[in-house]
C-alpha cells in the first residue's frame, strides 16, 4: 500500500507531460485545416485565431485531465483497516515500549553500580520463595482479627540488599497464650479493653548497645524475636516488612492490630533501637524485661565482654481528656511523678523496674536507676558509693515517695527535730511509714520504749521488706537485736486504717491511757489529688483524736509535700494549701514539714541553741556498731535552719485572708499621726553663731505626731535560752539590790513580752 502511493506520486509529473504533448497534434491539425479552407482571411488573423482555439482546447483538456487525476488520487487514499490488524499493531507497539524501558533501566542501573534484582521481581517471588526464610505471624488462640486491606508500594533503593514482606497466616492459629507471666497477662488484658480505638496510646522507645553484631545482621533472628515479643504479650502482628541495608544493618516495621512496632540495627556498633506503640490503656512497662531478654544478646566471643546497656522511655500519646471515658489525670499514675519524671526521661543512664503491681488500695511501682550525671561533682553526693550504686525509688499511685539517695535526708528531717523537741519521748506513733525508714529513725533514740505503726496496706509493707530491705535495716544499730526494724521488740505494726484507728482509740477527750509522746504522720502528701488525703489533713474529728492522743508536752509532726515558693498562691488555696520548709530529699524541690506542740515547754525546746542541740543529739541517739555516724545529714546547725520558716513560707502565709497578726504593717494608736521622714530637714541652726546644725520640720507637724514609726519598728526573735538567762539575771539583781541593772533588765524583759514600747513622741506647739 505504501509502495503504490510512492509510485503514484512519482508518476504524476509524467502524466501531466503526456497530456500536454497529445494536445498539440489536434491543435496543429485544426489550424492547418482552418487556414486552408478560408483563403480570404489574412495570414495574421488566421494565425491568431488558430492560436486562441488551440489554447482553449488545451485548457479544456488539462482541466478534464486534472479532474481525472484528482479523482484517481482520492480513490487511492481511501484505506480500510481490520480490527485484528489494529489489535496486533497495538500489542507490538506496547511490547516494543516495554522492551525499550527495560533496556534503558538496566543501562542506568549498571551505570549506578547496583546489581540487586528488581523489587517487583522480589515481591513477585516472595510468596513462593521468601515466606520460608522469615517467620510468619499467626493468630493467637482466642483472638479475633478483623478483615483488613493491604496496600503497598515498593520504591527501589540501591542501598538495600533485600526487601521482604510477610503477612499474618489467617488460615492457621496457635494456642500460645503468653505463659503464666502475670505481667504479660496484665498487658494483654488491658489491650483487650474497649478503648483500643480511642485516639490515645502508649509509646515505648528502647535503645540497647553492646549487642551481638551477628544477631543484629540476621533478619530471620530479629524477626523471630519481634514475633515472640508480640505473641508473649498477646498483641496481633498483621504484617511486617524488612530491609537488609548496605553495607550492613536491618530495618523492620510491623503493623499491629493495636498499632505498630519497628526497629533498626547498627551491627558495627552493636546498637539497636526499638519503637513500640500501642493504642488503649495497656501498660508497656512489663514489656521491658522481655525486650532485654530477646534483643539484648551479649557478645560472647569478645575478649572483654560487655553487658548490654539499655536506655528507654515511656510516654503517653494522643488525647484523653473529654474523649476517654472516666479518665482522670490525677488518678492515672502515668500522669503523675512516675510517668512524667521517671518513665518519660530518656536521659537516665539505666533504669530497671523492680515491681509494678496494684494492691487492693493503690498502685505500687518500685524502680532502680543509675544516673550519676545528675549529681554535682563538687557536692557531698558525688561519692563512689553513690555514683556506682543504683538508686531506688518507690511510687504510690504515681506519686514519688522517696529515693534511696534522698530517703535519709527526708526521714531524718521528719523524725529528729520533733523527737528532740520532746524532753523524754518514750511512746511514739507512726501513721503510714510502710517503707520502714521512719521506724528506723525513731528506734535510734535511746528513750524510746515502744513504737506503734498504723498502716492500712499490709501488702505494701511486705513488698518493701522484700524489695527495699535497706530502708528498714537495723542490723548496724546499737540497742537493736534484729536485722529488720519491723522485727524489733519495740516495734508494733497495726494494719488498720489510721483514720478510724485514732478516732476509735482517742475520739473521746477523757482518754487517759495509751497516749503518745510523739505522733509522726508519714502518709500521702496533702497537695496531691487523692481522696483519702482530705480525711487525714482536714477532718476535724480526726485532728481532735490526734490531739487527744498526745500526752502532756506531746509533739505532732507531718510532711506537707513541696514547700511554698515566692510566686505560689496563698497558703490554704489551691494545691499549696495545708503546708514549714525543711530538707531537700531528691524529690525535685524542697519539702515542707509541720511541727505542732501541745504546750509551751516543748515549743521552747524547739529553739535550742547549736551547742545545746549538739550535746543532746550525742546523748540521746544510739551509735552504730560499725562506728559510722548515726545520722547522715541531720545535725545541730541543720536544726537551726529549721527553727524559723523561710521568707517564701512567710509570704505564702501572709497572703491568706485570715492572716496572722504578724503579717500586718506595724501601726500605732490611730489618734497619733505618723509623720514621714520627708517632713523633716537638716539645716544650720539660727539661734547663734555656734548653734551648729539640727533637725527641723520642713512642714507643719501636728501635736502628738509619731515620727517615722513605719521604718522604726523591727521584729526580732529571742531564743528561749536567752529569755531564761534574762529571767535569772532579773532575780539575781533583785537579790543583790542593783536598781540600775534591775531597771535595764526589766525594761528589756517587758519589751519581749509586749508590755513596753519605746517610741518617740514629738510635741510641737505651733
TrEMBL record:
Record region (Disordered): 19-46
Q: Which UniProt keywords apply?
A: Autocatalytic cleavage, Decarboxylase, Lyase, Membrane, Polyamine biosynthesis, Pyruvate, Schiff base, Transferase, Transmembrane, Transmembrane helix, Zymogen
UniProt keyword Phosphoprotein present = no
Output the InterPro entries linked to this UniProt entry: AdoMetDC_fam_prok, PABS, PABS_CS, S-AdoMet_deCO2ase_core, SAM-dependent_MTases_sf, Spermi_synthase
Any idea which residues are catalytic in this one?
Answer: 522
UniProt cross-references to SUPFAM superfamilies, sorted A to Z: S-adenosyl-L-methionine-dependent methyltransferases (SSF53335), S-adenosylmethionine decarboxylase (SSF56276)
Q: Per its UniProt record, what Pfam families does this chain match? A: AdoMet_dc, Spermine_synth
Residue ranges of domain PABS in the record: 331-559
Compositional bias (Polar residues) at which positions? 31-43
Which Gene Ontology terms describe the biological processes this protein takes part in? polyamine biosynthetic process
Q: What GO annotations for molecular function exist for this entry?
A: carboxy-lyase activity; thermospermine synthase activity
- The membrane-spanning stretches of this chain are 76-102
Lineage: superkingdom: Eukaryota
Q: Which cofactors, if any, are listed as required?
A: pyruvate
Q: Which family does it belong to?
A: Belongs to the spermidine/spermine synthase family.
Name the UniProt record assigns to this protein: PABS domain-containing protein
UniProt organism field: Cyclostephanos tholiformis
Amino acid at each position: 500500500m505504501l509502495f503504490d502511493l510512492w509510485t503514484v506520486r512519482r508518476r504524476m509529473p509524467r502524466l501531466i507531460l503526456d497530456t500536454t504533448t497529445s494536445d498539440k497534434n489536434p491543435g496543429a491539425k485544426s489550424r492547418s485545416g482552418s487556414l486552408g479552407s478560408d483563403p480570404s482571411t489574412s495570414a495574421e488573423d488566421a494565425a491568431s485565431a488558430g492560436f486562441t482555439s488551440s489554447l482553449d482546447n488545451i485548457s479544456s483538456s488539462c482541466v478534464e485531465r486534472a479532474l481525472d487525476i484528482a479523482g484517481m488520487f482520492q480513490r487511492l487514499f481511501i484505506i480500510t483497516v481490520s480490527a485484528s490488524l489494529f489489535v496486533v499493531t497495538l500489542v507490538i507497539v506496547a511490547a516494543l515500549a516495554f522492551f525499550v524501558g527495560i533496556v534503558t533501566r538496566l543501562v542506568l542501573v549498571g551505570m549506578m553500580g547496583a546489581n540487586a534484582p528488581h523489587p517487583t521481581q522480589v515481591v513477585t517471588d516472595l510468596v513462593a520463595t521468601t515466606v520460608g526464610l522469615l517467620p510468619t505471624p499467626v493468630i493467637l488462640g482466642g483472638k479475633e482479627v478483623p478483615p483488613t486491606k493491604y496496600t503497598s508500594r515498593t520504591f527501589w533503593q540501591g542501598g538495600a540488599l533485600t526487601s521482604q514482606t510477610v503477612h499474618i497466616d489467617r488460615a492457621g492459629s496457635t494456642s500460645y497464650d503468653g505463659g503464666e507471666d502475670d505481667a504479660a497477662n496484665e498487658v494483654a488484658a488491658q489491650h483487650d479493653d474497649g478503648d483500643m480505638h480511642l485516639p490515645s496510646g502508649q509509646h515505648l522507645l528502647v535503645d540497647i548497645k553492646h549487642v551481638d553484631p551477628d544477631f543484629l545482621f540476621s533478619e530471620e533472628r530479629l524477626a523471630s524475636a519481634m514475633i515472640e515479643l508480640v505473641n508473649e504479650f498477646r498483641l496481633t502482628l498483621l504484617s511486617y516488612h524488612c530491609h537488609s541495608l548496605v553495607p550492613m544493618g536491618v530495618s523492620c516495621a510491623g503493623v499491629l492490630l493495636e498499632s505498630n512496632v519497628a526497629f533498626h540495627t547498627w551491627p558495627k556498633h552493636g546498637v539497636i533501637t526499638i519503637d513500640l506503640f500501642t493504642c488503649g490503656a495497656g501498660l508497656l512497662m512489663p514489656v521491658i524485661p522481655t525486650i532485654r531478654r530477646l534483643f539484648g544478646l551479649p557478645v560472647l566471643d569478645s575478649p572483654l565482654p560487655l553487658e548490654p546497656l539499655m536506655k528507654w522511655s515511656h510516654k503517653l500519646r494522643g488525647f484523653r481528656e473529654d474523649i476517654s471515658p472516666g479518665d482522670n489525670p490525677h488518678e492515672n499514675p502515668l500522669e503523675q511523678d512516675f510517668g512524667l519524671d521517671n518513665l518519660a526521661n530518656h536521659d537516665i543512664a539505666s533504669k530497671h523496674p523492680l515491681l509494678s503491681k496494684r494492691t487492693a488500695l493503690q498502685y505500687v511501682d518500685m524502680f532502680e536507676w543509675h544516673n550519676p550525671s545528675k549529681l554535682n561533682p563538687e557536692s557531698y553526693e558525688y561519692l563512689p558509693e553513690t555514683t556506682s550504686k543504683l538508686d531506688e525509688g518507690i511510687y504510690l499511685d504515681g506519686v514519688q515517695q522517696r529515693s534511696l539517695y534522698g530517703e535519709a535526708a527526708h526521714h531524718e528531717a521528719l523524725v529528729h527535730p520533733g523527737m528532740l523537741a520532746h524532753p523524754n519521748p518514750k511512746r511514739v506513733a507512726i501513721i503510714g511509714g510502710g517503707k520502714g525508714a521512719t521506724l528506723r529513725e525513731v528506734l535510734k533514740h535511746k528513750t524510746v520504749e515502744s513504737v506503734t505503726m498504723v498502716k492500712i496496706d499490709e501488702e505494701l509493707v511486705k513488698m518493701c521488706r522484700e524489695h527495699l530491705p535497706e530502708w528498714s535495716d537495723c542490723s548496724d544499730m546499737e540497742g537493736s537485736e534484729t536485722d529488720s526494724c519491723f522485727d524489733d521488740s519495740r516495734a508494733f505494726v497495726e494494719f488498720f486504717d489510721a483514720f478510724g484507728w485514732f478516732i476509735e482509740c482517742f475520739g473521746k477527750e477523757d482518754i487517759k491511757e495509751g497516749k503518745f509522746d510523739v505522733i509522726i504522720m508519714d502518709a500521702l502528701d496533702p497537695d496531691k489529688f487523692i481522696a483519702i488525703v482530705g480525711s487525714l489533713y482536714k477532718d476535724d474529728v480526726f485532728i481532735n483524736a490526734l490531739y487527744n492522743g498526745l500526752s502532756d508536752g506531746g509533739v505532732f509532726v507531718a510532711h506537707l509535700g513541696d514547700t511554698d515558693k515566692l510566686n505560689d498562691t496563698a497558703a490554704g488555696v489551691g494545691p499549696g494549701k495545708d503546708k514549714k520548709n525543711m530538707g531537700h530529699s531528691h524529690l525535685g524541690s524542697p519539702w515542707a514539714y509541720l511541727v505542732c506542740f501541745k504546750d509551751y515547754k516543748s515549743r521552747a525546746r524547739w529553739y535550742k541553741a547549736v551547742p545545746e542541740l549538739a550535746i543532746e543529739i550525742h546523748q540521746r541517739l544510739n551509735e552504730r556498731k560499725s562506728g559510722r555516724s548515726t545520722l547522715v545529714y541531720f545535725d545541730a546547725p541543720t536544726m537551726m535552719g529549721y527553727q524559723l520558716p523561710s521568707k517564701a513560707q512567710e509570704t505564702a502565709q501572709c497572703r491568706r485572708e485570715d492572716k496572722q497578726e504578724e503579717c500586718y504593717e506595724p501601726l500605732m494608736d490611730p489618734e497619733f499621726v505618723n509623720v514621714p521622714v520627708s517632713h523633716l530637714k537638716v539645716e544650720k541652726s539660727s539661734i547663734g553663731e555656734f548653734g551648729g546644725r539640727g533637725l527641723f520640720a520642713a512642714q507643719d507637724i501636728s501635736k502628738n505626731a509619731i515620727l517615722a514609726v513605719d521604718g522604726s519598728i523591727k521584729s526580732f526573735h529571742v531564743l528561749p535560752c536567752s529569755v531564761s538567762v534574762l529571767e535569772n539575771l532579773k532575780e539575781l539583781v533583785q537579790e543583790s539590790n542593783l536598781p540600775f541593772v534591775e531597771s535595764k533588765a526589766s525594761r528589756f524583759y517587758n519589751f519581749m513580752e509586749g508590755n513596753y514600747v519605746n517610741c518617740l513622741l514629738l510635741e510641737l506647739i505651733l
